Amino acid sequence: MGRVTVTRLLPTGGTAPLIAAGHEVVTNDSDTALSHSALCDAAREFDALVTLLTDRINSEVLEAGASGGRLRVVSNVAVGYDNIDLAAATRLGIAVTNTPGVLDETTADTAMMLILSASRLASEAEADLRSGAWTKSGGWGINQYLGHDVHGSTLGLVGYGRIGRSVARRAVGFGMNVIHHTPSDTREAGWTEDLDVLLAASDVVSIHVPLKDSTRHLIDRARLAKMQSSAVLVNTSRGPVVDEEALADALHAGELFAAGIDVYENEPIVHPRLLSAPRTVLLPHIGSGSIATRTRMATLACEGAVAVLAGERPHNLVVNR
Ligand code: DGY
Which of 74, 85, 207, 263 is the 20 to 30 Å CA partner of 23? Predict the structure, then answer.
């Protein structure tokens, strides 16, 4: 049986597939990310690494694994795998797996929560209530915290994969008109080839693309300027898809009405101007954060490692060996 290391504490029961398959499991119980050199050591000493999106599995880590002669698979407990150098994994014959399909609904719930809370200024209103400002001001006022209705508005989805489609289903229930942009024709109602057209037409824009070279700063200063000044931007995908400084500038200047953000360019650092931006709901990357979903993500990642170590081809394979 193999030796498997889990780089951070998983939800209870997360490693069950590894244990059931008889592997030796060594978990970093400290729940803080391993250093680069600790990751290299682990890659040298173990047959499988079960990693989190906070672990940077670059070519050095993978080369350490190849030089140790044991490492066969990196199983990422996330659907995104931009933290792993796929080219190096392919070159070195190390398999990579992820967790597709099990977090779509939970992440779509988070996007919907941000669409609603940003449009209706929930964070600003709650902050005033907690600080006592609302009570001191005399309480309810007819002109306070006036946001935009989501019913009857147009939601533009940038990316239309599993999570984007799950958001679309919810948005229809909230009375929104939904359009989407993908580079190739989905042949479905609401598709537009031109991202700028979608940005100009949408009251709310929600981003659902993976982070790749082609999507880094996809929403840059020029693209933000295409949006209506009454529009809301929501991002639950990856921080670097949006130019965070440009977004903060647009919010401060009133060129955008509001934003709901769950992911950041340099996590866990959040741009100070975004922290101070008005009408902004900021969450600490909790998109898939329900007990059931995070547990299923962990078991799915471990199932991927079990399959590769058994010489099988898991359905959640990103890079073959
Ligand atoms: C993912 O899976 O990629 C998310 O960002 C973490 O839930």
Answer: 85
